[in-house]
C-alpha cells in the first residue's frame, strides 16, 4: 500500500509573535529576524523534499514557503488559514486577561472569541482541508507535500488526528519547525487519522521542536 507524506511546518516569526499578540487573520509579513532565522535553519538542517508546497494564503506563510522551497510549485488554500480571534485579534494576553470569557476560552477553547472561530470550527475546516489534500495527492501521485501553515492549525491536526495520540500541549511547534506525518488510504478513510512519523526539518531533535529558536540555533554555533 502506498504511503504519502505531509510535512506540517509552521511559518517564521513575525513582529506580532515577538510581542506576544494573538495574530490570527491579521495579515502581517515575517519580521527581518524571522527571515534570518529561517535561512539559518535551512543552512543547519535539511527540510524534506516535496512534490508540491501548499500554504495558508497569509503573507507570513507564503513568505516562509518561498524561503524554504524557492524552486517548488506553490499553491495557497484558505482551509489552512489561522484561527480567527475576532475581537481579540492582534491583542496581548495582558490586554485580555480580565475580559469576560477570555479565561474560559483559554482553558477549554470550546467557545469562539467574540466575532471569531471556535476550536470546533477550526478543526472542521482543517480536517476538510486535509481530506481535500489527500485526494489531490492520490489523484496526482504526489508522494510528499510540504504544508506551510500556522501553529494552532498544526497543533489541532496533530492532537485531533495524529497517532499515537498525544495531549494538545505536546503538539505545539515553534517557528520554522513541525512534523512529518504518514497517510495511507486505509487509515484516513477508516479513522480520519495519520501517523506522526518524525520531526521536520530533518536532523533536529524533538526536544527542540518548541524551544526558543535563538537558543536552538545558538547552541550549535
What would you call the shape? globular
Main sheet: strands, sense, barrel: 7 strands, mixed
Q: Cα-atom Rg, whole angstroms?
A: 17 Å
Largest sheet, order of strands side by side?
3-2-4-1-6-7-5
Mean pLDDT: 94
Q: Distance between termini?
A: 42 Å
Counting helices, strands and paired strands, the structural category is: alpha/beta
Give the proportion of residues in helices: 25-40%
Helix segment count? Answer: 9
Order of helices and strands: EHHEHEHHHEHEEHEH
Number of strands: 7
Structural description of this entry:
The structure is a single chain. By secondary structure, the protein is α/β, with parallel strands linked by helices. The chain has 9 helices and 7 strands. The protein has helices spanning 15-18, 32-44, 59-68, 93-96, 102-108, 119-140, 151-161, 185-191, 213-219; strands spanning 4-10, 52-55, 74-76, 144-149, 162-163, 178-183, 194-200. Strands 3-2-4-1-6-7-5 form a 7-stranded mixed β-sheet. The longest helix has 22 residues, at 119-140. The chain is globular and about 50 Å long.
